[in-house]
Fold:
Amino acid sequence: MKNIDTKAPIADKELAILEKHGDVREDNYFWMRLSDAQKLSEVKDEHTTKVINYLEEENTYHDKVTASSRNFEENLFEEMKGRIKEDDSSVPYKSNGYFYITRFEKGMQYPIFSRKKDNLEAEEQVMFNVNEMAKDFDYFQLGGLNISTNNKLVVFATDTVSRRQYFLRIKNLETGKIYKDIIENTTGASVWANDNKTIFYTKKNPHTLRSEKIYRHILGTPTSEDVEVYHEKDETFNAYVTKSKSDKYIIIGSSSTVSTEAQFLDADNPTGSFTMLQSRERDLEYSVSHFEDHFYLLTNKDDATNFKLMKTPVTNTTKENWVDVIPHREDTLLEDFSIFKEYLVLEERTNGLNKIRIKRWDNVEDYYLPFTEETYSVGVYANPDFDTDVIRYSYNSMTTPASIIDFNMKDKSKEIKKEQEILGGKFNKENYKSERVWVTARDGKKVAVSLVYHKNTVLNENTPLLQYAYGSYGYTISDGFSSTRLSLLDRGFVYALAHIRGSEYLGRNWYEDGKMLNKKNTFTDFIDCSKFLIENNYTSAAHLYAMGGSAGGLLMGAIVNMNPELYNGIIAAVPFVDVISTMIDESIPLTTGEYDEWGNPNDKEYYDYIKSYSPYDQVKPQDYPNILVTTGFHDSQVQYWEPAKWVAKLRDLKTDDNILLLRTNMEAGHGGASGRFNALKETAKDYSFLLALEGKIDAK
Structure:
């Protein structure tokens, strides 16, 4: 791969003057924005045609520059595909008398959802064959499967555009009939009342895509008669509806980044009125579960920064009635909890590592499951049954493929129900090493970096290394296994996962110290980790690569503006790079709900701070590394025009001859291609970009 004679597309400049707080920004590429109506219209106007032509010119240029890697890319795809057990199936889980199974057939892109009554020897009932449903669509997503309490009906959600605006429909599992009821523009989630004919669902604002209204629908009635039971009018909040594991209550929730609120209704009385559990207060967060005569709340009440577990009587739910069940701890983040008849199961994180704690309600036992690897990922799995002694959890590490394990909380025995099979005959976990190192950031904080590499890889200045991170929304990327990543490790790459601020790897404060007016800590942490890896001879700037997606793509945009000399190549997937323009425009999907993550630029202090790191605004004349940018035309999370504008501005201002590519999937959105093999093809393209820069497209 090299910069060929074919000239890169040069986008037209059409000056737009953007003014806020007396500050004037000149945006030459503002014209690239299209509305949803323009994108989806069968008849394209002149402006729409111009934008689409530009994106297709960039795709053509991408294909020409990478043409020499095409055969390798195909081989890489086949290699990755060859590790996957194509006729795979999930571990069956039991719910309300049925075992539910998700399975794939060889050569098929999509899953088949089925169930068996009472036992696994029973006849299989196929509920949905997604391969049949998806055959006429470039993109197809099935989700939101929700079985009625009498096991006869299922609500299902479909998205054929990739904007996460789902249609809801209802299927009779006894007759196979799909009812005429079609509900448009939903989140995909739904809840059955206990009468087996009433469902509650969430509608999105058609323009901003904010989840704002809860409706009640009765089976067989026109959707035009659906009753609006709740409207979330605060534009910084999203609404949702769920059901307690006990099946006793339907719960409407409203949430912002820093505040939550819940209302509940007896599921036997779907036309009744909801009761407020605790009204919203800024900086008060809580999530709700039900057990016997109490609600249990995971909450940060009383300055419990790392969260704690409290309970309150169903008859007296306001916060003055809440009492501690698991107190707050300074060194441990309480991430989640699950309630069983005799046990309380807690998911915690201490010093960056997941832990599962099991506590009997009668306090006879309280213990942690033992895990011995230095880096790993563990989490409680699907456990819909309430009256059981068995908890199901998943475990994997950077060297250990995923396992699904059933653990008997009573006798402490465990059974491995499924181990991820890595086909091809070449994988041996003993061939790989993982370690965790701690980097001292410029302000003295210690940042963990998890590393994995082949045992034969020699670590020195010639070693290629891919550094990955996300660093926003408190989302922590776990130290997990990836079969596709083996294609890099087997070719001498080191993979480094940087647990930078903005995640909750070291607790809630780790997140708070990487958001709002502390956001730059996310970027400097990543850069300081890069410098550490270079200084300690894991790699060098000539062989260091960085990758991130969405808010992690913002991270990529920031670091290449700040320290482009540290990296030979960057992959920015669906990158959030035009931060200031997006956060000012409340008509753009999801903007208003983001104010408590980035700050509201209508406030000058936040405007100035966001602008000071916004990648698009900070592009300047300087040398940049080789860069691959990917996006989806129908992306609702990060609009395609952000990466398109960024690439156009980089082309105009950068002073180097390095490769700059933009690849737009014209059929996909934020999550990329649908179908397990199509997604692998995109990964193969990304990895080919890195391996070509290293001159490794012919060697393994």
